[in-house]
Amino acid sequence: MSTNGSVIRIIIDGKEYLSRSGVYLIDVARENRIFIPTLCNISGVKPRGACRMCTVSVNGRYMTACTTPVSEGMEIKTNTPDLHDLRKAILEIMFVEGNHICPVCEKSGNCDLQALAYRFQILVPRFPYSFPKRTIDAENPLLVKDHNRCILCKRCIRTIKDEQGRSFFAFRKRGHKLEISIAHHLKDHLNKEIAQRAVDVCPTGALLKKESGYNIPISERKYERTPIGSEIESLKQSVIGDQ
Ligand code: SF4
User: Fold this and answer.
1) pLDDT in tens, 204-225
2) What pTM value is reported for the model?
3) How is 120-189 classified by DSSP, letter by letter?
């Protein structure tokens, strides 16, 4: 989506902001230090609306902020009790549909899913656990894929590519058996640097690098120092609203 549209005015949570038409709503929110949770969105990468965590109210309708371009006069609510409950339910579904055992996960403290669970104060999900039988695939010499922890956000597919733009990752199988795989024809090109990028881009512990672990001690990890969202909210300022 182009960011070169005309200057427009929109209302977010009762305050007026300037933006440019066509910019994705989640990016407008980020620019203005308004935290909208997401697990699949990465700034600058084409959005897919896969996780639905960024659902907001736009002119009274629920829409994903990552796939919605802003336009003149939009009225957006980012944080109502209903939206909070919806997002919490989405998180709970992710937890019951996978096997997320945080205390034994190398990503604990650096995991976006875990950090959001803390932010939304999830204790006992309202849905029954499904305890799916999933595998851990350690076939690749550099990466371990733990399908128990994959939330199918497609971040790895959309961002980890070779020079020709071919993705190192893909989905295989269908329905509830859908899982992430390393593209067969590219697996020999997967080097340590690419493996590290994949681990970093994954919002959970579904992708982990072999031969290293716990380089950052527990209690010194990203979300143990600052809760998720605080990096956006800490410099909160409006373009027009505070004038
Ligand atoms: S492996 Fe990680 S980045 Fe890839 S789809 Fe699963 S959760 Fe998302």
Assistant:
1) 999 999 988 888 999 999 999 9
2) 0.92
3) TT-SS-SS--------EE--SSSEEEEGGG-----HHHHH-B-TTS-BSEEEES-GGG-EEEE-GGGGGG
